[in-house]
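tool=predict chain=A
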Amino acid sequence: MSVFSPKSPFKKPLSPSLKALSKPFAALRQSPAPQRLTGETYRNLLDQLHIAVNTTPPDQAEADIARERGTFLARQDRWDELAEIIAEADRQRRTTDAGQPIADLLAYGARADVVQAAEHALLHGRAAKEANFFSGIEALEMVLDDARDSYPIALIVANMHIDIGWAWRGAAAADALKATNREAFHAHFDRAADILDAFCPIDLQSPSLAAARCALLPGRQTPELHIIREFERLIDLDPLNPRHMRALGNYLLPRWYGDFQALDLEARRTAARSFEDWGAAGYTWVWFDALLVDPEGLSVVEPEYFLEGIHDILDICRDQHTANLVAAHLYHCWQIARERYNETGYRPDLPPALRRGFERVVENHLREIHPLIWGHAEIGFENTARIISPKRLAEKGHETALSAIAMPFLKSLQDGQTVTFGPDGIHHGSS
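tool=predict ok
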């Protein structure tokens, strides 16, 4: 049955609150303005800096292809074929270069039409007049009813409910949330939990199922009691994908379900458990997103351990996506720490340590710019705020990256030399 058919009644009616999605819950963090070269000198110097700019890195194309394939197969009602390729991608732990699981991208594509229709209808936190997005939800539920033993189909439908729950939840503070929105949020999350409870991630060896269970945490009454167990299970199932460790650190921030001491402890535990695969990098990955989302964590993180983890990350992941990710992260952390030190004398060891780490990454690893990565670093990686145009974000990221990358070579540039980044290294010459 097509998810677009309006004639797809449930065999069992859902709760009214499920008939009753806004922007995902993602607030922009505020951070100090980064230090940049300014004025006419800045423009002149950048004319002497030559580095390739990659606006369409391979991982972006891979992600688009996987999402589009999921959407195409869903529109064609080829659910058995879609379930098979999701399960195969999940078994093989296939990801894009950026670490996005192919199984999750396929599953998102399969539910995208329904989720986007609901988001559009709930643009202002309430259902638009005469909005009819519920038929799509009913249709996907009927697909699941016909494939009760298929965990890939269950993943599609459960994640649909999670997405729609967040759209109902919106970005309002908990005490400002309307009762209708709160009830719809919990109803969708409860339905997703019911669906996922029928499948064991360990028995099926499925990281996608484990990740979906982690995504359910905000709908649980006491998520802080479950977060470590759920994420340990996910990381053990897919230890080579750092996105899981990054998500764990974000959830352990004070604004979610932890505090900085708990975050640091879990970063150390994760590093110990993943040492065979990552060396010290487990510590760094758990802190990675958290430091940009809430820079107060800079008062707790251990710089030497963090930078040792950076070294291990780049020793293992030698692609330009990772080089840009790490360079952008260190640059923004350095700027935040520098401003705090200038204002308060706070942790005098931290800004120079972060600067040295940033300069080593630029000189030894970075060979091209990925502008979107640098743009996202300014607002927190993986931020999905819809108010930001990807094009504008990339333009801002390009500007920031050029200014940041010029800093280690400032004296050479001021002396009139050119600095050229190539596949085999960095070359200095006369302009």
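Residues 318-431 form one domain. The two ends are 65 Å apart (CA to CA).
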